């Protein structure tokens, strides 16, 4: 586990960035992207948004197609290179940097962080820093949106979260004190062979994220089980949470 914690974020690796879109191809499907973009358009009151961990533009590019001015931050230059190679990327302003500290000098109605990426921050201190940095970018009444999994007590241990011809994903919960899991991915290459990559993440329960939001000056406005606004229940395996900046 220590080796995984010491390892840099895997998305900094050009080889990972080069195959990222293929590895998560299902998340690029219109049935996945459409509802996400629909909700973000509704939440971006002034038609501007900042995306933390913008990656290859899975959400930012279709959001820009809907008329929202998107600025993004990402630590990985290789991931941003993939974004810049795509049609319409000239409409999205990107900055290389850490989403816990880099400031873009703008005030917006919406900051968002999707696809479990809050877990890429491997300490509670860093996750609190992310919330605080989101607030630095928000105008009064602005919103911070996070999409992530719900850790499940019944799944602590080893859990297969994806099983398909092209990808096998296994979560290994290795440190319940530090709240660390290791995700193992077996991705099929073009030659038919499966390539393994593993990375460590820090999971957090919704109540802990609510406390981080409170520390940063945010209050919970909505919590859904998905981007379709399905009710969040004790059986939900993921959540989309919307916190709003208190107007002082």
From TrEMBL:
GO MF entry, a single one: methyltransferase activity
Domain of life, per lineage: Bacteria
Enzyme Commission numbers on file: 2.1.1.-
GO biological process: methylation
Domain Methyltransferase: 50-142
Enzyme class of the recorded protein, top EC level: transferase
Protein's UniProt name: Putative methyltransferase
Keywords: Methyltransferase, Transferase
Keyword Transferase among record annotations: yes
Pfam families: Methyltransf_25
Organism taxonomic ancestry: Bacteria, Bacillati, Actinomycetota, Acidimicrobiia, Acidimicrobiales
